[in-house]
Amino acid sequence: MLFTFSCCGLGFFVAKTKDLIDSAKEFKEKGNGSPVEQLSLVDVPIGRVRSLAISTDNLTLAAVASGSGDISFYSVESFLNKVRYFVTWFVEIIS
């Protein structure tokens, strides 16, 4: 599963890359598609983000806060685990 990390007003979103591509194709073909906020699997509210960078091994994401310049590090695997937890929880509720 590939993720796309997108800065937003007060943090960043984590969305499946395939979902974003599919939405862009739908927008191109039909004139409507879902915004990143609706496709987001995880919303990370850390304040205004200056930049995001992924490590060369794709295991760590660094986010730089605009105001303070603080750097926060995130395990990409933790986002995957949150997605797995949500899917498991959702399946249990509808079952």
Write the layout of secondary structure elements.
Elements: E1 3-8, E2 11-16, H1 17-30, H2 36-39, E3 40-44, E4 49-54, E5 60-65, E6 71-75, H3 76-94
Antiparallel strand pairs: 1-2, 2-3, 4-5, 5-6
Structural features, described:
The chain is an alpha+beta fold. The protein has one domain (3-94). It contains three helices and six strands. It has helices at residues 17-30, 36-39, 76-94, and strands at residues 3-8, 11-16, 40-44, 49-54, 60-65, 71-75. The strands form two sheets. The protein has a three-stranded antiparallel beta sheet. Strands 4-5-6 form a three-stranded antiparallel beta sheet. A hairpin with a 2-residue loop joins strand 1 and strand 2. The longest helix has 19 residues, at 76-94. The chain starts with a strand and ends with a helix.
Which percent bin holds the helix content? 25-40%
Termini distance?
Answer: 25 Å
Q: Structural class, please?
A: alpha+beta
Query: Average pLDDT across residues?
Result: 81
User: How many structurally independent domains?
Assistant: 1
How many helices? 3
Strand order of the largest sheet: 1-2-3
Beta-strand percentage range: 35-45%
Tell how many strands the DSSP assignment holds. Answer: 6
User: Which blocks of ≥5 consecutive residues have pLDDT under 50?
Assistant: 85-95
What is the helix/strand order?
EEHHEEEEH
Report the radius of gyration as a whole number of Å: 15 Å
Shape: globular
**What does the largest sheet look like?**
3 strands, antiparallel
List keywords for this structure.
single chain; 95 residues; alpha+beta; 3-stranded antiparallel sheet; 3 helices; 6 strands; 39% helix; 36% strand; disordered C terminus
